[in-house]
Specification:
This protein is α+β, with helices and mostly antiparallel strands. The protein has four domains: 10-163, Glutaredoxin, CATH 3.40.30.10; 263-316 and 393-582, Alpha/alpha barrel (Glycosyltransferase), CATH 1.50.10.10; 332-385, no CATH class; 586-663. It is built from 25 helices and 18 strands. The strands form five sheets. It has a five-stranded mixed sheet with strand order 1-3-2-4-5, with helices on both faces. It has a five-stranded antiparallel sheet with strand order 8-9-12-13-14. Strand 17 and strand 18 form a beta hairpin. The N and C termini lie far apart (67 Å).
Length: 668
């Protein structure tokens, strides 16, 4: 009996009709393995994972393979986005054993959760140096049946190694100017000056590294840092990794030129990149950066927003073909014949030239620098594409990624005078505050169709949700968001923080796995460690809390040894460290609500490039629950007034937006 039908995870539901007798991750699965004395097969993936779909079609839907598997194993299916803690523990083991990782992840373990065999995608027939999935099943069964003592010994050693891998943290000082400059030098060594980005193929959008470089430029005036951002952002925006018709970024490019993407679109990539392009516009005023920021924000709202106001996790890479079957990128790619059918022969030639379409690269891009897509062709092609079968949507709402979306949409909406984006950010934040928060104030990881999931929130959920709430507080002035961020950060300090100041990915009262995951390095998103450090720093600046500031600085100690050695893998940590070094600057804007002068001062504060600047907005008089940053601040002579402080030094109050911008500049 397949037990996935009642799951809220779209990935698990994709496997609910498999002939494999799947269990969700649960005590019952391991009790069953213990009762039958068989090993556990753990299969981990996610709904928009292309090779997960392939392995499912090739092996998990094969009735003969399923019968063999069901008789000799207990099969457990996990959505890595729903249970990142389980994924992290066993991915650590996979990478240590094989030197690489990825999804689908395939692990065999004992009924005690101790792993002894590791792999990723396994084909239905041996090839390319890989055994078939059936061969692996047979080999594991033989080892379990005939060499049980050896298997148990390997499993026990691996489990002991994982359990003993807890980080020893001596809380070094946070990075200073020298370490941050060293990080820029190391990034410059790895920078692809010709094509933008860092390293070779495949190329992933380095959003958090770009955010650090923008902040470093704002602090130091480094032309080199800004050049790396501009070159990379322009190359991505012109490449096939960016959807030239509908906006939004694909997960990564399979080549070094950003031409051919892996076509899945993730909420987290687009939230992070919308924020980067907004901040690049703040720094340079580039019209094209504004366009990409807004198109990406509009893509999120149009294609990922759920009826409850949250944001779905992803769009699949695959979609249906007209004649049946699925193919990666089918929704997005074009042939010359398809262009002609949509536009007519004459305009098809013009479109192929404008979008750089070739037989070898059937992806739309902008080959000419500084070009914008022709609006008439774009609209017609978008209408034609809308008639195609659409990629599936993983409509699971993940707390952490929605926190990133709240921050991005709130800031873009404020900077570009788009109140609809601020409204979308607010609705998503309300969903996190209500549906994703239980009666004890603890977060759940996911929801779907208005129902909360059962998995508890991990550190990145608390850090990113707090980041989103604080950004929304800065844009709206609503003190409720500051209070909610404070409540989440209190849980971080009491449940996720060790006595030495180190942070763990799971709470101290969470489910006991064979090790407690703890990874400070940034991957596709900010790590829970660096996300929490950033939110703690901003909250401290708004409230004056020494406790939160000290916790942030202690957490940032992990960044110091990595800054000059592996800056690409600690980008958000470096961005937070840049903000800590800059203050961060504290801005209080006080004036009558709805007053145009107050709005102009507030906008000047939000558009400032000072790294990590926090903004508190308040009216004159009583301010129930308002940020302590507003304490004692008044509208001087009845006029809207801004107050800027940095460290323990404050500037003169001003009612002039230009003067405020100057106070928040590099030389202030």
């Amino acid at each position: 009996m397949n037990r996935l039908a009642d799951s809220r995870s779209p990935y698990l539901l994709q496997h609910a009709s498999n002939p494999v007798d799947w269990w969700p991750w649960s005590p019952g699965a391991f009790e069953e393995a213990r009762r039958r004395d068989v090993p556990v097969l753990l299969s981990v993936g996610y709904a928009s994972c292309h090779w997960c779909h392939v392995m499912a079609r090739e092996s998990f839907e094969d009735s003969e393979v399923a019968a063999y598997l069901n008789e000799r194993f207990v099969a457990v299916k996990v959505d890595r986005e729903e249970r990142p803690d389980v994924d992290a523990v066993y991915m650590t083991a996979v990478q240590a054993a094989t030197g690489q990782g990825g999804w689908p992840m395939t692990v065999f373990m004992t009924a005690e959760g101790e792993p002894f065999w590791f792999g990723t995608y396994l084909p239905p027939r041996p090839g390319h140096g890989l055994p078939s999935f059936r061969q692996v099943l047979e080999g594991v069964h033989a080892a379990w049946s005939e060499r049980r003592g050896e298997v148990d010994g390997v499993a026990a050693r691996i489990a002991a190694d994982l359990a003993g891998a807890e980080r020893e943290y001596d809380a070094p000082r946070p990075p200073g100017a020298d370490e941050l400059a060293a990080a820029v030098r190391e990034l410059a060594e790895q920078f692809d000056a010709e094509r933008g980005g860092f390293g070779g193929a495949p190329k992933f959008p380095p959003a958090m590294t770009l955010e650090f470089l923008l902040r470093h430029h704002a602090t130091t005036g480094s032309a080199e840092a800004l050049h790396m951002v501009e070159r990379t952002c322009e190359a991505m925006a012109r490449g096939g990794i960016y959807d030239q018709l509908g906006g939004g970024f694909a997960r990564y490019a399979v080549d070094a030129e950003w031409v051919t993407p892996h076509f899945e679109k993730m909420l987290y990539d687009n939230a992070l990149l919308a924020r980067v392009y907004t901040h690049l516009w703040r720094a340079t005023g580039a019209v094209w950066a504004r366009r990409i920021a807004l198109e990406t924000a509009d893509f999120m709202v149009r294609e990922l927003r759920t009826p409850q106001g949250g944001f779905a996790s992803a769009l699949d890479a695959d979609s249906e073909l007209p004649g049946g079957g699925h193919e990666e990128g089918a929704f997005y790619t074009w042939t010359r014949a398809q262009l002609a059918e949509a536009l007519g022969e004459g305009d098809a030639v013009r479109a192929a030239a404008a979008f750089g379409l070739t037989d070898d690269a059937p992806v739309l891009r902008l080959p000419h620098p500084a070009a914008a897509p022709p609006d008439d062709l774009r609209a017609r092609l978008l209408a034609a594409r809308a008639l195609r079968p659409r990629p599936e949507r993983d409509d699971k709402v993940v707390t952490a990624w929605n926190g990133l979306a709240v921050a991005a949409l709130a800031e873009a909406g404020a900077c570009f005078d788009r109140p609809d984006l601020v409204h979308a950010a607010t609705e998503a934040a309300v969903l996190l505050a209500e549906l994703h928060t239980d009666g004890a104030g603890r977060l759940v990881r996911t929801s779907r169709d208005g129902g909360a999931g059962t998995s508890r929130g991990v550190l990145e959920d608390y850090g990113d949700a707090a980041e989103g709430f604080l950004a929304l507080h800065g844009v709206t002035g609503d003190p409720a968001w500051l209070a909610r961020a404070g409540a989440l950060l209190e849980t971080v300090l009491t449940r996720f923080r060790g006595p030495d100041g180190a942070l763990f990915d799971t709470p101290d009262d969470g489910e006991r796995l064979i090790s407690r995951p703890q990874d400070p390095s940034d991957g596709a998103t900010p790590s829970g460690w660096t996300a929490a450090a950033g939110a703690l720093l901003s909250y401290a600046a708004l409230t004056g809390s020494d406790r939160h500031r000290a916790a942030a600085e202690t957490a940032l100690g992990i960044v110091t040894p990595l800054a000059g050695r592996a800056p690409r893998f600690i980008g958000w940590g470096l961005a937070v460290a840049e903000a800590a070094l800059d203050g961060p600057r504290q801005v209080a804007v006080v004036g009558p609500p709805g007053d145009p002068a107050t709005a102009l001062l507030h906008l000047a504060a939000l558009r400032a490039t000072a790294p990590g600047a926090v903004v508190a907005l308040g009216g004159q008089g009583e301010r129930d629950g308002a940020a302590p940053l507003l304490d004692g601040r008044t509208a001087r002579d009845g006029r809207a007034t801004a107050y800027v402080c940095r460290g323990f030094v404050c500037e003169l109050p001003t009612s002039d937006p230009a003067a405020l911008a100057g106070q928040l500049g590099r030389d202030a």
